């Protein structure tokens, strides 16, 4: 099992990547899932915190 500092480091890096508008690597996602994080929920929560909101292309 990884220690707490390593978990926070991986999570912190992922949040910084999402906030910059990029996707994390598959390996980083796998590591976060292994640590018990819901990667999809984290990504959704942190992607739009930079003030950029994306409009859906769906037609009503």
Task: Give a written overview of the molecule.
- With 60 residues, the protein is mainly α.
- It has one domain (4-50).
- Helix content is 57%, strand content 0%.
- Helix 1 crosses helix 3 (39-47).
- It starts with a helix and ends in a 13-residue tail after the last helix.
- The model has no long low-confidence stretch (mean pLDDT 79).
pLDDT below 50 for ≥5 consecutive residues: which ranges?
Answer: none
Q: What's the SSE pattern?
A: HHH
Total strands: the figure is 0
Portion in beta strands: under 5%
What Rg, in angstroms, do the CA atoms define? Answer: 13 Å
Portion of residues within helices: 55-70%
- The number of distinct structural domains comes to 1
Largest sheet: none
Shape type: globular
Structural class call reads mainly alpha
Spatial separation of the terminal alpha carbons: 47 Å
Number of helical segments with 4 or more residues: 3
Oligomer: single chain
Determine the mean pLDDT: 79
Write the layout of secondary structure elements.
Elements: H1 4-19, H2 26-34, H3 39-47
Helix pairs in contact: 1-2, 1-3
Would you summarize the structure shown here?
Helix content is 57%, strand content 0%. It has three helices and no strands. α1 crosses α3.
Keywords:
60 residues; 57% helix; 3 helices; 0% strand; globular; mainly alpha
């Amino acid at each position: 099992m990884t220690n707490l500092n390593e978990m926070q480091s991986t999570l912190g890096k992922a949040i910084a990547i999402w906030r910059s508008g990029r996707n994390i690597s598959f390996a980083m996602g796998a590591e976060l899932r292994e640590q018990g994080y819901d990667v999809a929920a984290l990504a959704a929560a942190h992607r739009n915190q930079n003030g950029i909101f994306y409009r859906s292309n769906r037609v009503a």
